# Entry
Amino acid sequence: MPRQESLELTRRVLKHFENDTLDIADDVWREPRGAYVEQDRFVADVEMLRSVPHVIGWAGEVAAPGQYTTKDVMGVPVLVTRGKDGALRAFINGCAHRGAQVADGCGKTRMLQCPYHGWTYGLDGRLTGTPARKMFAGADLDKRGLIPLPIGEQAGLLVVGLSADVDVSTALDGIAEPLSDYGFDHNHHAETRCFDIACNWKLAVDVNFEGYHFPYVHADTLDPLASNNSVYDIYGRNIRWVFPFRDIVAYRDVPETDWPDQFFGTVVYGLFPSCVLIEAPGTSQMLRAYPGRSPGETVVYLSIGAPKEITTEEERAWYKMGIDGAALVLDGQDFPMAAACQRGLEAGVDHIVFGRNEPLLHHLSSVRAQALAGGMR
# Structure
């Protein structure tokens, strides 16, 4: 984040500290329970989510020729490669023989090999080797290979489409500039953890964009350190939520020239439809939330990134400690609350109400409705 932008955010939150306020909405918002429990809405959500681009990783994960990374996106196994020619490509991670995954995790390689029957592929997706090839005469193997998917690199982030007709070029319209200064094109993957949550996918996303719950859910973790004197900005369908560390008040009596270059708090980006970036001093995290098999099931992937390649055990221990802390807050506190909300809605709570102090939840509900209506595809 540029220093001038960090200074402006600091000014805004210090003003809220002075007045004991935060950025708010003009009114309340009511979201019907059907958005979280009805099968018809669930099917519509899944259809919408499959039709829009998704941010799935940091470009630094595949910065060098020969690097690859694998992701699960809406249940679709996705493989992203950087070819010898430097080109970025994405494919369905499924062998042209039986569909088994040809790569796992991330790394660097000269070719990809299916573990089932040994079919091999180049980083460009071409089928390069078939054991007992003569047994497949008539199968048009020269025309078979990994199925390509749309892929783009914007602001140092990987953006993929789950079908050939998805336009990935506009995914970060409006928000690419504030994201571009984080150096995501250099971020290396440190670790990813997967969580299955008994809640609707929207609830799993929304826990990341309001601080109203801090004193109650995070009394022993976030709340002693962070304040809900927060500010937000909207960039089309994407958002930024900024909440400060409590000690930021010490800068009230310090000249701006002596303020830190990096905002003294946490900056959370919501990248439509379900990617969350969490940036704070010393940590870079990414959450990706997708529906499970029913309205009340969600899978969340939590990844932590490193600004350079991890080469020592000490570095690995540092990033493990970081993701352990994030998991404590999310899986230990936030996600159980999301599951509790789901149980109440399934039991008959007729709608959710978002207060004026939860403005970004208003926005998230609004842009989802627009996307369901076909206005953001």
Q: What stands out?
A: The chain has a mean pLDDT of 96. The longest strand covers residues 188-197. Residues 313-347 form the longest helix (35 residues).
